[in-house]
Structure formats: structure tokens, C-alpha cells
Write a structure and sequence with these properties.
- This protein is an alpha/beta fold.
- It has a single domain, classed as NAD(P)-binding Rossmann-like Domain (Rossmann fold, 3-Layer(aba) Sandwich).
- The protein has 7 helices and 7 strands; from the N terminus they run βαββαβαβαβαααβ.
- Strands 3-2-1-4-5-6-7 form a 7-stranded parallel β-sheet, with helices on both faces.
- Strand 5, helix 4 and strand 6 form a beta-alpha-beta unit.
- Helix 1 crosses helix 7.
- The termini are far apart.
Length: 224
């Protein structure tokens, strides 16, 4: 029987590429998102589910429903993210909570549910950002949240080592998405990483070929 991949944030540009990468290699996919989107629900190997991934109760409910029908994911990818510009001095509480919940909270709660269930040989991949390592991006809250995702990855990889569950993070710089094309120069987009290439790296980490890789913080910057 094929493996199951749970893609959290499966309705976005990167999420859609991740879904396609897992499907292409023969996995079954559960694409979870607040707005799961897509016009491919007739595919027998794909299930799109509406979940508020900032809500830990909804994530737990999703796992419970999957377990009830015998569909426990082996691969978990946390690809939810959102960007708001601004410096620390100019930050507002609502903006801070929004960015932290979307970038760190979704990964934290998804990892919590997965950590309770995954077993030997399974894997989690978190999507962080180059901003986690390089400050001064003009988006203080986003950078701090993505840095916390890196630390979450490192901590969880140690916590799950005894179970032989691998936890890694991928750090993009600029991804060639429709949203970025609207706001960035053509020169910068020309150096951006296509989402399909980012998805290929994640799919590798979610495979037995990467059985010796855990706790890795992997830059995938391309030339951006």
C-alpha cells in the first residue's frame, strides 16, 4: 500500500506543488488548508480537507478522522506561512499574533499531533525561511516566527530520535509564486526557485532515501 503524505497548507502555491510531487511518485495525499481549493477532488489518491491549522483542536480532529479510517500519514509537511512587513517598534498586537499563529503556531500544533503518532522511518518537514537566519528583512515578526520554526525543528528532531522519526526544515528565499510575481521585480523573480523544485527537495526528505537525515536546516535559496 502506498504511503500517505499530509500537506498542511496544501491549498497555496507551494502547497499545490508539494501535493503534485507526492502524487507523482505514487503516494496518497491529504491536503489540509483553511481554503483547500483545487479542482482535483475526483482523484482517488487525493483528499482535500478544510482545517483551521492555527487551531490545535481541529488538527487533532483531522488526525482522529484519518485514524478512524486507517489512514495514518507517514510524511507530514508544514507549509503554512504568511508575511507582514514592519519593524519591532512599529508592531501592533494583532499583527504580531497573526504572524506568530500563521508561521509558528501552525507548525507547532501540527508537529504536536504528528509527534504523538508517527513511528520508525516517518518524517516531518517544516518550511521556514531564509529570513530566519538573516535579519533586516523589514518583517520582524515574520523573521522571528520562522526562526522559531528552525528551533522547533531542532528540538523535535532530538525528542523523536528514540522513535527514529526524522524532523527537518527547508529554508526558501524567494519562491516563484503568483503573489511574488505581483510584488517583485522581474529580475528578482528570474532568480527565484520554482515551487516544483522546492517540492522535490521536501519530497526527498520525506523518503527512505533520506533515512540518515534528521535535524537538518536546509537552505534552498537558488540564486535569489
Amino acid at each position: 500500500m502506498s504511503d500517505i503524505a499530509l500537506v498542511c497548507g496544501g491549498g497555496g502555491a507551494l502547497g499545490s506543488a508539494l501535493v503534485a510531487a507526492f502524487l507523482e511518485r505514487g503516494d496518497r495525499v491529504v491536503a489540509a488548508d483553511r481554503h483547500p481549493g483545487g479542482h482535483d477532488n475526483d482523484l482517488p489518491s487525493l483528499r482535500r480537507v478544510a482545517v483551521d491549522l492555527t487551531n490545535p483542536d481541529e488538527i487533532e480532529e483531522l488526525w482522529t478522522r484519518l485514524e478512524e479510517v486507517g489512514e495514518r500519514p507517514r510524511w507530514v509537511v508544514n507549509a503554512v506561512g504568511g508575511f507582514r512587513a514592519g519593524a519591532v517598534a512599529d508592531s501592533e498586537p494583532d499583527d504580531y499574533r497573526f504572524v506568530q499563529d500563521l508561521n509558528l503556531g501552525t507548525a507547532w500544533w501540527s508537529c504536536r499531533s504528528a509527534a504523538r503518532r508517527l513511528g520508525e522511518g516517518d518524517a516531518i518537514v517544516n518550511i521556514s525561511s531564509r529570513s530566519a537566519l538573516v535579519g533586516g528583512s523589514g518583517a520582524a515578526g515574520y523573521s522571528v516566527a520562522k526562526a522559531a520554526v528552525v528551533k522547533l525543528t531542532e528540538v523535535l528532531s532530538m525528542e523523536l530520535a528514540a522513535k527514529n522519526v526524522r524532523v527537518n526544515a527547508v529554508l526558501p528565499s524567494v519562491i516563484d509564486t503568483p503573489a511574488n510575481r505581483e510584488t517583485m521585480s522581474a529580475e528578482r523573480i528570474a532568480k527565484a526557485v520554482p515551487p516544483e523544485q522546492m517540492a522535490a527537495v521536501v519530497a526527498f526528505l520525506c523518503s527512505d532515501s533520506a533515512a540518515a537525515v534528521t535535524g537538518a536546516i536546509l537552505p534552498v535559496y537558488g540564486w535569489a
